[in-house]
Design goal:
heterodimer; A: alpha+beta; 2,3-Dihydroxybiphenyl 1,2-Dioxygenase, domain 1; 8 strands; globular; B: Non-ribosomal Peptide Synthetase Peptidyl Carrier Protein, Chain A
């Protein structure tokens, strides 16, 4: 995709530590782990011998962004893909022109050095995240 | 377009999204009163309404509205 670089797959689960342990057992290495109070989620990034980064996402509180997926019993599962961009606004406009709806204003992501992120929903593919100039583990 | 027409369009789209043809809603109905009208289905509703009504919602408008009456207010401001 124009101007976008694949960054990670987001995996939602309530079993945060067990999910990390399972991926480590599969050969992944834990890069960083934070409790992001502002986003109301626990986040861990893992890198593997091949393929994209994995992001483990677990709820911190009862009203976090995973609530709807949990109620549908849709977790644990991959539930979003994330792309890095140099220009969040420009990439957001590109997605808008292709039928995505941006969910809320940009917010800083603690696990990515407070890089701004946005979520975009498309009726056919679900959630896509954008992150501007991510700084993993900083 | 009058409020009653917008209400009917919202109801028809909710019926489709929630797969509930018995759904009854009014202007005072809020999402937390309707089974399965969660944040994801609310986003699906907004995307459907954009297509049907030829309007665009801004990012800050995608959080669940207080009730359907407030959503109608928002839509009517975009249709002016």
């Amino acid at each position: 995709m124009s101007g976008l670089e694949f960054h990670h797959v987001g995996v939602g689960t309530v079993l945060f530590e067990a999910a990390i342990a399972t991926y480590v057992d599969l050969g992944y290495k834990l890069v960083t782990s934070v409790d992001d109070e502002a986003l109301d989620v626990r986040i861990a990034f893992l890198s593997g011998p091949s393929g994209p980064l994995l992001e483990i996402v677990s709820p911190l509180g009862p009203d976090g962004p995973l609530r709807a997926l949990l109620k549908k019993q849709a977790l644990p599962s991959p539930y979003h893909t994330c792309y890095a961009t140099r220009d969040l606004l420009l990439s957001g406009e590109m997605l808008r022109s292709k039928g995505f709806l941006q969910l809320g204003p940009p917010r800083p992501a603690a696990a990515l050095g407070n890089a701004p992120i946005t979520y975009h929903y498309h009726h056919a593919i679900g959630l896509l995240e954008l992150v501007e100039n991510p700084r993993l583990g900083q | 377009m009058v409020r009653a027409q917008v209400l009917e369009i919202i109801r028809n789209n909710l019926v489709e999204i929630l797969d509930n043809d018995q759904l009854q809603v009014g202007e005072q109905t809020s999402a937390n009163e309707v089974e399965d009208w969660d944040s994801l289905n609310h986003v699906r509703l907004l995307i459907s309404l954009e297509a049907v009504l030829n309007i665009r919602f801004e990012p800050e408008e995608t959080a669940s509205a207080g009730n359907i009456g407030e959503l109608i207010d928002l839509i009517l401001t975009k249709r002016q």
